[in-house]
């Protein structure tokens, strides 16, 4: 078999550079191009040297690990033992994932009369698996594997970042209590204009049984001030939460000013794993007639001021 060392060198240079870039993306690092090129050059030189240098120790496990260590140090620096271990682990994770994807795709595309056709036995009784791939197909499958890995990692990272914004909230009104999943929206700056009380948003369907009959559906097409006027005329004595309802003006996306129906709770409790629970006394709950999350992952949007409240153990009692 003829081996072109220059082709081996440039192929490994491209592969190692791509793997290092993917590792940097996974670890959210920004190494310079010169550092990445130096590390990729070292890996490519080592791969090429294995074909023309008769040095027994060059093929040992320890040498391969040593070369990997130097490549990681050249690319990302040291940064402490924990940082280095994480970078080194991510480097090998990307390597194994992409190489596994290349082999998997190649075996998926190839055809053979028998599954044993690509297997042979050595004189010592060992099993050898023959693997041949054209350069163009190798490059295509390798880039596809890297893309799949990065896409999966990016989706997982975004999901983890999103999980940091989720809170479990409990709303208490008189003797009742309602618990829902909520998303912290740092861009929500809605306040009641006179009292400057922050307004969180919640799906009106959560309060379907507590609102007057039909209000959840009518909020989708009718202005809340019309519903309030009807309540004043017909439900003043029957509806016990009449004094808790508010109308909060807000600016819609198109720039028009609209009114939102809001509810004044007694207490809202915020909790999240790894954080002490928070107690908020001054807050309004704006009722949205639609669905806040198409996936149903949350039913309320938390105002950023609420996340700055004092923990329950030290939360002072504030007047409504």
From TrEMBL:
| Parts of the chain that traverse the membrane | 6-24, 36-53, 59-78, 90-109, 129-149
Q: Does the keyword Membrane apply?
A: yes
Any Pfam family hit: Peptidase_U4
Keyword set, alphabetical order: Membrane, Transmembrane, Transmembrane helix
- Keyword Cell cycle belongs to the record: no
What this protein is called in its record is Sigma-E processing peptidase SpoIIGA
Q: Which organism is it from?
A: Cohnella silvisoli
> What is the gene name?
spoIIGA
């Amino acid at each position: 078999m003829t081996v072109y060392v220059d082709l081996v060198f440039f192929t490994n240079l491209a592969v190692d550079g791509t793997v290092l870039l993917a590792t940097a993306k996974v670890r959210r690092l920004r190494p310079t191009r010169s550092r990445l090129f130096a590390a990729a050059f070292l890996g490519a030189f080592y791969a090429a040297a294995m074909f023309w240098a008769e040095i027994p120790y060059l093929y040992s496990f320890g040498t391969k690990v040593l070369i990997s260590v130097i490549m990681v140090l050249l690319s990302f620096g040291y940064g402490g033992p924990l940082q280095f271990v994480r970078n080194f682990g991510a480097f090998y994770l990307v390597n194994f994932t992409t190489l596994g994807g290349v082999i998997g795709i190649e075996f998926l595309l190839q055809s053979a009369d028998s599954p044993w056709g690509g297997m042979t036995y050595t004189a010592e009784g060992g099993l050898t698996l023959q693997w041949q791939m054209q350069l163009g197909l190798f490059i295509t499958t390798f880039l596809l594997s890297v893309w799949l890995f990065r896409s999966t990692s990016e989706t997982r990272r975004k999901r983890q970042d999103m999980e940091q914004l989720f809170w479990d909230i409990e709303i208490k009104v008189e003797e009742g209590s309602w618990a829902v999943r909520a998303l912290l929206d740092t861009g929500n700056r809605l306040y009641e204009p006179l009292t400057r009380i922050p307004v969180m948003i919640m799906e009106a369907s959560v309060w379907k049984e507590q609102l007057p009959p039909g209000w959840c559906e009518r909020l989708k097409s009718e202005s809340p001030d019309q519903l309030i006027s009807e309540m004043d005329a017909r439900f003043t004595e029957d509806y016990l939460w009449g004094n808790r309802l508010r109308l909060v003006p807000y600016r819609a996306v198109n720039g028009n000013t609209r009114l939102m129906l809001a509810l004044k709770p007694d207490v809202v409790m915020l909790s999240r794993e790894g954080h002490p629970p928070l107690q908020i006394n001054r807050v309004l709950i704006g009722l949205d007639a639609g669905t806040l999350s198409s996936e149903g992952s949350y039913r309320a949007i938390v105002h950023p001021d609420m996340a700055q409240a004092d923990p329950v153990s030290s939360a002072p009692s504030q007047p409504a």
